[in-house]
Amino acid sequence: MGRIITDLDIPAVDFCFTSGCFDLLHSGHIWLFKQCREIAHGHQCKVFVGVNSDKSMWDFKKKKPIFNQWDRRVIVAAIQFVDYVFLFDQRNPTELIRRLKPKVIVHGDNAWQPAFEDTDELEGYVGEVIKIPTEGGWSSSKVTEEIMRRYNAQNK
User: Fold this and answer.
1) Are strands 15-20 and 46-52 parallel, antiparallel or unpaired?
2) Which of 55, 78, 106, 115 can bridge 92 by disulfide, Cβ–Cβ 3.0-4.6 Å?
3) Domain count, the chain
């Protein structure tokens, strides 16, 4: 199980970094974590996952998560491909990336995070940014829509 860390106990190791809300975990998330593990292995570093807090989810999505930040953090930490999990309050992980200075940032090609697209802003703070193709076509929004579609179809 990955280690849940706080601001006070960030270890001094090299990281492969990714982040997200991870509200309704699906196969696309697991694919992302697995790819992070493989990339981290090649760079001899650990997988570090930033999880958006409830506040930061509200700030950019204007909706409350299904699972609260503590539950989402524990769920992500239980994934075998993840070494460290950290909760962050900002809309995007730019500040966290600047503090961690990861060797690698990995994100899916559907990432919303502006920090992943504007790598000039992170120059000197990150070694490499790797965009991986989304696997399976799922997103938490699509999962929610499918649940609602099925629920509404059953209750007509």
Assistant:
1) parallel
2) 115
3) 1
Using CB atoms within 10 A of its CB, is residue 87 exposed (0-12), middle (13-18) or buried (19+)?
A: buried
Q: Give how far Cα 21 sits from Cα of 17, 60, 149, 153, 156, Å.
A: 14, 11, 23, 28, 32
**Confidence band of 112 (pLDDT split at 50, 70, 90):** low
Q: Closest Cα to residue 18, out of 3, 39, 41, 42?
A: 39
Predicted pLDDT at 76: 97
- CA dist 59 and 55 (Å) reads 6
Average pLDDT over residues 34-62: 91
Q: Which pTM value belongs to this model?
A: 0.86
